[in-house]
Amino acid sequence: GEDVEQSLFLSVREGDSSVINCTYTDSSSTYLYWYKQEPGAGLQLLTYIFSNMDMKQDQRLTVLLNKKDKHLSLRIADTQTGDSAIYFCAELGRNSGYALNFGKGTSLLVTP
Amino acid sequence: ETGVTQSPTHLIKTRGQQVTLRCSSQSGHNTVSWYQQALGQGPQFIFQYYREEENGRGNFPPRFSGLQFPNYSSELNVNALELDDSALYLCASAYGSGDKNTEAFFGQGTRLTVV
């Protein structure tokens, strides 16, 4: 499918907020996802948002969706060293045959 | 812990050989999808099975094939292995198909190295 775009790297200090951005491609996307991948591991579903929502909050995680610009963001409050990982944005929509279309991932490094 | 298990965790094969990877879905899930994740890339969709039938396929050649069994476990078969097939292969299970397939849970993956 077409490319879901994410910035490749983000470095933050422990205790700060992290914001990871994503631009998706399919205006028919019904759900948008954030997955976390730690080294040598599979993908962990963090959260997802339905396309008719603007925002979803889940503990330290806040997802913002701008459908007009096809922009999705993930904010992690009070970032911890254990949050260091690769974060993938993914869309689920008609154009991808309702399979997950992933970005290349954003590598988040949290420094003490 | 997602309840999705894959085997083996690591595998080394020679170019031209065939390989079978296995996935056990989370209990109650009837949809399984397979993804290939090359180093430094996001996962790429290979195909999806719903109730034992293939109902979606990504841009992969026919030498990538699969099966889903009545207990909804699944296999991914790759024939005539090429060096570029070296990747992490991820299985994901979910309940439902199409846009009803809201939450997909991934296994830990099988790391395939082709030499």
How does this model look, in words?
The complex is a heterodimer of chains A (112) and B (115). Chain A is mainly beta and 112 residues long. Helices cover 0% and strands 54% of the residues of chain A. Chain A is globular. The termini of chain A are far apart. Chain B is globular and about 40 Å long. The mean pLDDT of chain B is 92. Classes of the chains: A mainly beta (112), B mainly beta (115). At the A-B interface, strand 5, strand 9 and strand 10 of A face strand 5 and strand 10 of B.
Key traits:
heterodimer, A: 112 residues, mainly beta, 6-stranded mixed β-sheet, 5-stranded antiparallel β-sheet, 0% helix, globular, B: 115 residues
Task: Explain the layout of strands and helices.
The complex is a heterodimer of chains A (112) and B (115).
Chain A: E1 5-6, E2 9-13, E3 18-23, E4 31-37, E5 43-50, E6 55-58, E7 61-66, E8 71-76, E9 85-92, E10 100-102, E11 106-111
Parallel strand pairs in A: 2-11
Antiparallel strand pairs in A: 1-3, 3-8, 4-5, 4-9, 6-7, 7-8, 9-10, 9-11
Chain B: E1 5-7, E2 10-13, E3 19-24, E4 31-37, E5 44-50, E6 53-57, E7 64-68, E8 74-78, E9 87-94, E10 105-106, E11 110-114
Parallel strand pairs in B: 2-11
Antiparallel strand pairs in B: 1-3, 3-8, 4-5, 4-9, 5-6, 7-8, 9-10, 9-11
